[in-house]
Each structure stands twice: as structure tokens, then as C-alpha cells.
From TrEMBL:
The keyword Signal applies. GO terms for biological process: cell surface receptor signaling pathway; immune response. Keywords: Disulfide bond, Signal. Residues 28-84 form the Ig-like domain. It comes from the Eukaryota. This is FCRL5 protein. InterPro entries: Ig-like_dom (IPR007110), Ig-like_dom_sf (IPR036179), Ig-like_fold (IPR013783), Ig_Fc_receptor (IPR050488). PANTHER family: FC RECEPTOR-LIKE PROTEIN 4, IMMUNOGLOBULIN FC RECEPTOR. GO terms for molecular function: transmembrane signaling receptor activity. GO terms for cellular component: external side of plasma membrane. Gene3D superfamilies: Immunoglobulins. It comes from Prunella himalayana.
Length: 109
């Protein structure tokens, strides 16, 4: 499933990541999707603070490590998502967790 990596509030642009893990690694074949609840229009993508595409698609397959965020007209920037190439990683679901929740941990190497 898709997992938003931003919180609710004034900022409505969300950067969704698939697979839905809190620590995202490049070798998972990561897809990013930019969406918001109010506007239609072109998406501007940023990688490591620099504009990557002026008016690009709402979704793309990541092919390089770095920190990504997106911008949609009228709703602002999403929170950033960092894609790593770490060789050993402990992943947890990228959803809010409460005491007593069953949690699946994934150790990848």
C-alpha cells in the first residue's frame, strides 16, 4: 500500500512512497508519488534541494540516492523523503505506531 510521509495540517502536499517503509533504500525499486487534496496541475520535483523537473509527472521510479520532495500548485512543498543505499537496514512500517500495535520489522542486507 501507499504510505504518506507527511502529517495532516496546513500543508496538504504529500509525498507517497512505495514500498511503505520508514527507511527507504534504493534497491527496493522505490516509486514516489506527489499528491494533494485540493489542486490539479503539474508537479515540481526536487532532489537534494535542487529542482529536478520543472513540470513533471506526479509519479516516478527513483534511480538515484538522495533527498526528494515535491511541490504542487497552491499547496506547497511536501516533507522530504531520503533514499539511501545502505547495505544493512532495519525497516519499520511508515505509519503511526501505538503502544500494543503488532509491528513487522524487516532486516535487509
Amino acid at each position: 500500500g501507499w504510505c504518506p510521509l507527511s502529517t495532516a495540517g496546513a500543508q496538504t502536499t504529500q509525498l507517497l512512497v512505495e514500498p511503505p517503509w520508514r527507511l527507504v533504500v534504493l534497491w527496493d525499486q522505490v516509486t514516489l508519488t506527489c499528491q494533494d487534496s485540493r489542486t490539479a496541475g503539474a508537479t515540481t520535483w526536487y532532489k537534494d534541494g535542487k529542482r529536478r523537473l520543472q513540470e513533471g509527472p506526479d509519479q516516478f521510479l527513483v534511480t538515484d540516492i538522495g533527498t526528494y520532495k515535491c511541490d504542487r500548485p497552491g499547496t506547497g512543498h511536501s516533507f522530504p523523503v531520503t533514499i539511501s543505499d545502505t547495505r544493512l537496514v532495519l525497516q519499520v512500517p511508515a505509519r503511526p505506531l501505538l503502544e500494543g500495535d503488532m509491528v513487522t520489522l524487516r532486516c535487509r542486507c
